[in-house]
């Protein structure tokens, strides 16, 4: 069971599934059966994409201490067994998202897989900028949920939340690369630090985080977070996020400071997603 959870990257898959539900709720789709269907469908699809990524990265994973004990890279799971699991996940996701929902929902789910296992996986060993493409995979679940709820992908509300879903992933990876850059370098993977240097990466990551906090604070202008207490909480955690990221501006960014900011950024985006979902349930969006 532990290997299974690692293979499907359960934390990432749960976040993708939650983003799909967030899109559905923001668009006004509060039907419990559809919420469950969308959530489970993207949980399966993201899990399948994660298993495929383990297969794709097995040689790279063996070169890094942090990843060499993963199920496929360590040999505990054969490539064939992992492929069977991935196929099961994709078939389960297809059965869920293809049952009674618009065909576009399934197309968007497949688009997420193409962005992650296709474009990002191909670019990752070739360029430090691969994350800018890989981050698109996190927007597809949100778009699918929004579309399933009857929303238009041109709506300002969707575009604002999509920018948030895309934007947080960039500093998320850049902070991770500051924490484990030596392992990425040993594996032959290009990172932002190989292009700009650690100090410059720290400053760029801080700028992204500052912009992310600013975008989050603008969400009420798009008709979101209309519950006053949630707006106050958003302001407080956004200020804390910026304060947590301030050490990134110092020369010689320390590994523990980068990983601390990485963990807080992850908690921050989960909190924002939770608040947006709660706000949409308490005060449904009206078009």
What does this structure look like?
The termini are far apart. The protein is flat. The protein has 2 domains: 1-151, UbiA prenyltransferase (Tetracycline Repressor, domain 2); 168-287, no CATH class. The protein is mainly alpha-helical. It is built from 15 helices and no strands.
Helix-residue proportion = over 70%
Query: What is the total domain count?
Result: 2
CATH topology call of the largest domain: Tetracycline Repressor, domain 2
| Counted beta strands | 0
- H and E order: HHHHHHHHHHHHHHH
CATH architecture of the largest domain: Orthogonal Bundle
Distance between the termini: 44 Å
Structural class: mainly alpha
CATH class of the largest domain: Mainly Alpha
Q: List low-pLDDT spans.
A: none
CATH homology superfamily name of the largest domain: UbiA prenyltransferase
CA-based shape: flat
User: How would a textbook summarize the main sheet?
Assistant: none
Per DSSP, what share of the residues sits in E-state strands of 2 or more residues? under 5%
- What do the pLDDT scores average to? 90
* Count of alpha and pi helical runs: 15
**C-alpha Rg, in Å?**
19 Å
What are the defining features of this structure?
2 domains; flat; 15 helices; 287 residues; single chain; Tetracycline Repressor, domain 2; mainly alpha
How does the SSE layout of this entry go?
Blueprint: H1 2-7, H2 10-26, H3 32-56, H4 58-62, H5 71-74, H6 79-97, H7 103-123, H8 130-134, H9 139-148, H10 156-167, H11 169-186, H12 192-196, H13 198-217, H14 228-245, H15 255-282
């Amino acid at each position: 069971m532990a290997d299974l959870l690692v293979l499907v990257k359960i934390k990432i898959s749960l976040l993708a599934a939650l983003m799909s539900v967030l899109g559905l709720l923001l668009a006004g789709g509060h039907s419990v059966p559809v919420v469950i269907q969308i959530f489970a469908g993207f949980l399966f699809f993201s899990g399948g994409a994660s298993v495929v990524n383990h297969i794709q990265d097995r040689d790279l994973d063996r070169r890094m201490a942090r990843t060499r004990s993963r199920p496929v890279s360590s040999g505990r799971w054969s490539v064939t067994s992992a492929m069977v699991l991935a196929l099961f996940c994709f078939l389960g996701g297809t059965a869920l998202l293809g049952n009674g929902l618009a065909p576009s929902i399934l197309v968007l789910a497949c688009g997420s897989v193409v962005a992650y296992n296709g474009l990002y996986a191909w670019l990752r060993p070739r360029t430090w900028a691969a994350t800018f493409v890989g981050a698109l995979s996190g927007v597809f679940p949100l778009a699918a949920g929004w579309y399933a709820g009857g929303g238009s992908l041109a709506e300002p509300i969707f575009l604002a939340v999509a920018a948030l879903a895309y934007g947080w992933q960039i500093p998320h990876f850049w902070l991770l690369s500051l924490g484990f850059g030596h392992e990425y370098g040993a594996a032959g993977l290009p990172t932002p630090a190989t292009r700009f240097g650690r100090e410059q990466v720290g400053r760029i990551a801080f700028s992204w985080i500052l912009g992310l906090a600013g975008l989050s604070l603008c969400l009420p202008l798009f008709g979101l977070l209309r519950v006053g207490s949630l707006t106050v909480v958003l302001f407080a955690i956004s200020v804390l996020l910026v304060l947590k990221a301030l050490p990134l501006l110092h020369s010689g960014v320390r590994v523990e400071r980068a990983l601390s900011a990485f963990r807080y950024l992850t908690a921050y985006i989960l909190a924002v997603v939770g608040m947006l979902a709660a706000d949409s349930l308490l005060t449904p969006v009206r078009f």
